[in-house]
TrEMBL record:
Keywords: Membrane, Transmembrane, Transmembrane helix. This is Cytochrome P450. The chain crosses the membrane at residues 25-48. The keyword Transmembrane helix applies. InterPro entries: Cyt_P450, Cyt_P450_sf. Signal peptide: none annotated. Gene3D superfamilies: Cytochrome P450. The keyword Membrane applies. GO terms for molecular function: heme binding; iron ion binding; monooxygenase activity; oxidoreductase activity, acting on paired donors, with incorporation or reduction of molecular oxygen.
């Protein structure tokens, strides 16, 4: 996998910066079984907290089984991707139950972040919580599942 990343090019044919490759490595290492368990646990808790959403997701699955869209006893990933409502629930759980680790950066120039100018070489990190609850990205109801 590392060989593929090191040999990868951007759409403009440029070498991918090492920092971007490091980000991908960290994402894959931290995105292991514990992160998956956290996200699945979060999805289960969210679905249990919202019975109407759970019923709608279950109905979509039942309908897909009746129409023969899902293989039995174990549907394929590609088949499951056709379940639009269930997929939306999973994406929403990923947003709300973020397991991402902040990645620190600095810049050689002044950056304006949320109306504040930073000095060059100031350490900056992202907050998964701040991103996942950003009203400018996700709208005014970011506190809802």
């Amino acid at each position: 996998m590392l060989d593929q990343w090191l040999g990868a090019k951007t759409t403009e044919g440029e070498v991918i910066p090492m920092r971007d490759i490091e980000d991908q490595l960290v994402t894959h290492v931290l995105g292991g079984p514990y992160a998956l368990a956290t996200i699945l646990g979060g999805l289960g808790a969210l679905m249990a907290s919202y019975p109407r959403i759970m019923r709608r997701a279950q109905q979509e699955i039942d309908d897909a089984l009746v129409r023969g869209i899902l293989s039995q006893p174990s549907p394929l990933y590609s088949e499951c991707c056709q379940l639009q409502y269930v997929s939306a629930c999973i994406r929403e759980a990923l947003r709300i139950t973020s397991t991402a680790s902040p990645r620190w950066r600095s810049s050689d120039r002044v950056l304006n972040l949320l109306g504040q100018d930073t000095r060059p070489r100031t350490a900056i990190a992202t907050s998964p919580f701040a991103i996942s609850t950003s009203k400018s990205i996700y709208g005014t109801d970011t506190n809802l599942f």
